[in-house]
Amino acid sequence: MDYQFTEVEKKWQEYWRQNKVYKVDIDSGKPKYYVLDMFPYPSGAGLHVGHPLGYIASDIVARYKRLKGFNVLHPMGYDAYGLPAEQYAIQTGTHPMITTDKNIARYREQLDKIGFSYDWDREVKTCDPAYYKWTQWTFIQLFHSWYNRDTERAEPIEKLIAIFETEGNANVNAASGDINHFSAEQWLQMTEKQRQQYLMPYRLAYIDDTIVNWCPALGTVLANDEVSEGLSIRGGYPVERKSMKQWLLRITAYADRLLDGLETIDWSDSIKEIQRNWIGKSVGGTLRFAIRDTELEIEVFTTRPDTVFGASFMVLAPEHEVVGQITAEAQLAEVEEYIRRTKNRSERERMTEVKKVSGVFTGAYAFNPFTEQPIPIWIADYVLMGYGTGAIMAVPAHDSRDFAFARYFQLPIIQVITQKDEEPTDTAFWETSYDAKEGIAVNSGFINGMDVMDAISAVVTEAEKKGIGTAKINYRLRDAIFSRQRYWGEPFPVYYKDGMPYTLSENELPLELPAIDAFLPTETGEPPLARAENWKTKEGYPLETNTMPGFAGSSGYYLRYMDPQNNHQYFSKEAVHYWKNVDLYIGGAEHATGHLIYARFWNMFLYDLGLAIKPEPFKKLINQGMIQGRSNLVYRINPEKMAEYVLWEELRDKKLGVEFFQEFKSGSRRFDFYAPEVRLIIEIKRQQALDKLATAYEQWAKEQDYTLLLIPIRDFLDQREQIVQRIKDAIAGKEVEAFVEKESIENFPAFVSKNIAGREQYSDPINVDISLVHNDILDIEAFKKWQPHLADARFVLEDGKYICGYEVEKMSKSKFNVQNPDELIDRYGADTLRIYEMFLGPIEQSKPWDTQGIEGVFRFIRKLWRLFHNDQHTFSLSDETPTDKEWRVLHKTIRKVEDDIERYSFNTAVSAFMIGVNELTELKCNKRQILEPFIILISPYAPHIAEELWHLCGHEDTVVKQTFPVCDERYLIQQSVVYPVSFNGKTRFKIELPADIETNEIESAVLAHQETKRWTEGKQVRKIIVIPQRIINIVVG
RNA sequence: GCCCGGAUGGCGGAAUAGGUAGACGCGCUGGUCUCAAAAACCAGUGAGGUAAAACUCGUGCCGGUUCGAUCCCGGCUCCGGGCACCA
User: Final residue of a domain: which of A442, A474, A506?
Assistant: First the structure.
């Protein structure tokens, strides 16, 4: 019997489950290793082959690390809150929990079939009250914390209150919103409500008014990328820019630590770069500009204080508060009109119109604080209220946007920086600004001659001395909006008293999601939770009706896995001190600015609280590439085009003796072909069309003295020779009937195989379900049954086969190219699937899914099986001592596979296994001492066959718990080396030499070789380069 | 516009330290076995060139460094991803 993968795989999956082989507990005697997959959102579609790619890689590492003696934590769970289940609930009334549980069951079934080594006792679901209790708990901690900039960490709000009570808030250095100063006395005299109001801007979870994209029809707030031109992408409903009270998390407090932390973790440069951009730190200073004839000042933020002498105007964001106070009477109408125009456009739309320059002069002037010159103040929407101070000093000579603006409105451009060793030039002739942060200050008073970097700090120092500015760092990062007007999410553990939010006490957690009658917002636009009956505390205070966003539950899940059943704590001290943080995290790159940044923030906060013990949650991150779909195409024939093409092939190049032309026009009539020599017209049309037209056409042709042939398309299917014969007769001048009437037949679809000549010209590609295609050959019978209208389909074949085309595109239902892992497991088994997914290429690279190659892996698995079996298919191992060659194969493979797994090069390890099996097959090796270690070696990749073979070898225990074989260098030492000998870098021949001889011996051996003479003849040997064990190069000339 | 990746046979890819380019697999061609097919096995397979060899060319393009470059440097082209009036 050949290898029976279906039974074998089922048997061992059952065995592993029953014996809880993958269950893991704290074991201080062993080093720990934590391998984590980004847990999935269980969608209704189930897994396709792209999902398990990362899971397989992490599973290989987990199994490998176990064999290497590590205690491996390898859990899995579900990111169970998500829009699809809620959307489905809105449409059907099915509770999202029911949908979600169903989908989870399906996911679990699929995952189990692949043979993953998860410890399922640690499974978490974010929608499980026992889990989200701790999401809510963390929110409470955030609410009761503030960020102390002096200590650079989160601290309890009580400590802040204690400071307020003794000295007010003047000396508090906190990451906070806008605050007014108050004294201890004022604090003590405040009402409870006032105190709460003053505390709010300090909290790490706080409520604030935020401008959001509110969509009344959907009853929710949309993200910027869910809105296009004022309409929701989904549904096309109007979206308003609206100020709403929302919960926010003060992630900005951690901006610097999030940035610095990137230096300490092993993530790809691209993800780190994305996060750096997202945080968007810029270092500079603020400067205050006095406004002429008023007491007012405008503060600007700039990264280039060194260019202040070149600031020739100012620009404010249209919504800047000072605009109303400074606009001159004469400019009022224009300014108001401009503000109205820009107001309703979202930030995103403003950004997309980058190229257009627009703006209006306010009529007011400010004084440049260094040159003391008055400069005009403009408003323009290229200045954003949301960044810096909403105002800039414009330095057109050294900022490209200011330059464009100045040119457009003809404002002065003053050069204040020159490149090294260059003289200033007339800016009137500049085509672009000089933006680089390199050069020497000129026309700049006291900083003249300084280099840019020195000039920056000199100006900041001077500004501080004069009291008109300070050094300042700005971030692009915004606080995270934490409220969603949705049902399917974690309820906030918050109630309102006297209009102020308070948190529930910890013993009231979890606050469970209530039942509601419909999953929609209320008529008054309140979130769905407002429908819940009795949605208030015991005391009768109303509870928060928003729910938390998707990233709430996924931000700390890796910590919960460490101690998932703990009812008293998020996770125990003992657990976190043992498991620490994630050693290897695998998942998609699409979470770069979402989950991966929130989770780092969440972890840092818990670190400040002393709960997490590492500042960074994920030491090493791998982003698996996307698996793209490989669609198959069939080519549907356009019958008229095809008939024309086929006939033209018969007529062209005087094949029938006379010259034909395509497209003959006579008056308003058009015909397909015309031979002027014999006045012969040929027209191809559908039978039905000809039935109607034939008489009129014939009449016309007679009048004009043309010979006419009307050929129905259907004739091209089976009467091609007759057609040609009729044309020949017509050419020969015989009487030929223009149109032979026939019974009309039903239309049927027809398809042409890919490589039939002319196919491109008369067919249209159509996606066909990939399950009907094997190695690009269409299963015609299955295809006919695929859709009802294909039942009578006809085919133009090549070599008796229908060959499909293909295209690489996104895997999606509509392209019929979704490859589902279950099907492949049924056909080839899980081990083959696992190895094939790894074999496709480097884990981080995107690649198309192509089932063709899987056969090769399947062959490899059976070849491995045959190593252990004789010709009669009976298991047979020999206890003889292996030969050196056999040892060498084993140890070479150990070395290669170990190296490859350690550097996550899974595809090359698969090659190494194949080479190993090929070589052992060649050696006809069935020796226990070689093959048993080989089983262990391959078990991370192909756990099922490995377990089966391990037991066949007579072992009672599981292969999972063995020790990874150790490479013994002795077997790798070569007696001799085959050196490639090259002349001037081109390899010419090879020479085998003993491995241990000296360089000069190698040289003389090579020079003595007779091939050498051929290449040195008539030339001089100038140099011999010998790289021991590698190559010999002889320079001649 | 800016930032980050990438480009190697018909296809997926390999070459870990500047040292035999194309490992391994797919596909294709021919063969063995078979009544036949499947499976399996064997041989060949970068391009040009040749009866076969020799030889020439060849890692997106142009140039450089080097005894030697897929790898390092300079300048481009194309593809993928991210960011985008961020002061």
Answer: A474
Residues in contact with A229: Cβ distance below 8 Å, sequence separation at least 6, in sequence order: A349
> Is the same domain home to A452 and A316?
yes
In a domain, A536, yes or no: no
The nucleotide whose C1' lies nearest the CA of A300 is B87
- CATH code of A804's domain: 3.40.960.10
Tally of domains in chain A: 6
Domain of A428? 282-474
The residue ranking higher by pLDDT, A770 or A880, is A880
One domain for residues A887 and A995:
no
In a domain, A516, yes or no: no
Has residue A531 been placed in a domain? no
Q: How far apart are CA A952 and CA A940, in angstroms?
A: 18
Q: What is the CATH number of the domain that holds A19?
A: 3.40.50.620
Long-range contacts of A414-421 (CB under 8 A, 24+ apart): A414/A309, A414/A310, A414/A312, A414/A443, A415/A310, A415/A442, A415/A443, A416/A306, A416/A307, A416/A309, A416/A310, A416/A441, A416/A442, A416/A443, A416/A444, A417/A306, A417/A307, A417/A310, A417/A441, A417/A442, A417/A452, A418/A442
Nearest to A32, CA basis, from A76, A7, A65, A67: A65
Gap from A244 CA to B71 C1', Å: 56
Secondary structure of A671-707 in the HEC alphabet? EEEEEHHHCEEEEEECHHHHHHHHHHHHHHHHHHCCE
CA–CA distance, A971 with A894 (Å, rounded to integer): 11
Nearest residue (CA) to C1' of B27: A852
- Judgement on whether residues A778 and A860 belong to the same structural domain of the protein: no
Q: Same structural domain for residues A293 and A437? A: yes
- Chain A window 272-331: residues with CB closer than 7 Å to nucleic chain B are 273-274, 277-278, 280, 282, 284, 301-304, 317
> CA-to-C1' distance for A62 and B17, Å?
29
Helical H segments across A244-378, by residue range = 255-261, 269-279, 323-326, 332-343, 347-352
* Strand B near-CB residues (< 7 Å), A 682-741: none
Model ipTM? 0.94
Which residues in chain A, range 203-232, keep a C-beta under 7 Å from any nucleic strand B atom? none
Please check whether residues A14 and A120 belong to one and the same domain.
Answer: yes
Strand B close to A860 by CB, under 7 A: yes
Strand B contacts in A 789-848 (CB under 7 A): 839-842, 845-848
A336 lies in the same domain as A378? yes
CA A856 / C1′ B85 distance in Å: 54
pLDDT in tens, A48-67: 888 899 999 999 999 999 99
Which one of A459, A474, A489 terminates a domain? A474
How long is the CA A280 to C1' B41 vector, in angstroms?
Answer: 62
A924 touches strand B (CB under 7 A): no
Residue range A796-850, pLDDT digits in tens: 887 777 888 777 777 777 778 888 889 899 999 999 999 999 999 899 888 888 8
Kindly state whether residues A666 and A782 are assigned to the same domain.
yes
| For the segment 472-501 of chain A, residues whose CB is within 7 A of strand B | 474, 476
- Please give the Cα distance from A489 to A491 (Å, whole number): 6
What's the CA–C1' distance between A622 and B73, in Å? 30
Same domain? For A790 and A873 the reply is no
Residue that has been written with the tokens 């067919």 in this structure: A763
pLDDT for residue A353 is more than 70: no
With bands split at pLDDT 50, 70 and 90, how would you rate the model's confidence at A238? Answer: confident
Q: Give the closest residue to A261 by CA, choosing from A638, A619, A765.
A: A619
